[in-house]
Amino acid sequence: MKGFVSLVGGGPGDPELLTCKGRRRLEECEVVVYDALVAPALLDLCPATAERLYVGKRQGRHALPQPEIDALLVQLGRQGRRVVRLKGGDPFVFGRGYEEVLALREAGVDHEVVPGVTAGVAVPAYAGIPVTHRGTARAVTFATGHPAATGEGTDFVALARVPGTLVVFMGLTNLAEITASLVAGGRSPGEPAAVIAEGTTARQRTVVGTLTDLAERVHAAALPSPALLVVGDVVSLAERELAVAAE
Ligand SMILES: C[S@@+](CC[C@H](N)C(=O)[O-])C[C@H]1O[C@@H](n2cnc3c(N)ncnc32)[C@H](O)[C@@H]1O
Asked: Which residue from 62, 117, 169, 223 has its CB within 8 A of the most atoms of ligand 1, so it is best to mutate?
């Protein structure tokens, strides 16, 4: 029996945003290795006999370091098992999915990726914000607000000069620094911006403001993670939420 590892994107929170292909992989797996941001209802799709291994990663709290997750996937694949590596959103958007691909490739374990619906598009959409809109935003940039382990964070002063919508993942902790850097880089202090927490779930909350006052508003509202920052004129298009979570 040859093992096979499917990297499956579980979507951003609403379990109904799982793809049909991702659902089939979960229904047929023998073991599922899953993260903190995965909707719990997705695990119910696995056979009752499937082994469930939590390797949850939340900022600052790594249940298993990435190299150990890579090694675990290789080990399970070599045991000849049908493995689903279930990740939040899309595996290749700030998900470290390609590190897992490299480990599996190097070890000679067969694998595939099943893309998922990324929070970067779906979370703003649920909040009523289109990431592009004819006449308003011709481009969208995805960036991480998480400082790199090397100490080299994203250069938001430089990113400020890129026109269009800016979507920042993992930007809650450094929100005040990020918005200040964008203004320092040339974005208007009055530019609309929003933070959406626990997007696409029944607990979704949105705080809207400008680059000048957003950090203060978000702090006052005590928004929890996971949360996404959206900057640009598209934010002012949002009048009401456009979708309802399945939960
Ligand atoms: C490690 S990244 C994973 C992103 C994921 N691979 C994707 O494509 O959506 C985690 C970050 O994604 C964002 N995120 C994920 N799910 C979210 C949600 N339901 N609501 C708001 N932001 C979310 C947050 O910025 C969070 O800190």
From this structure: 169
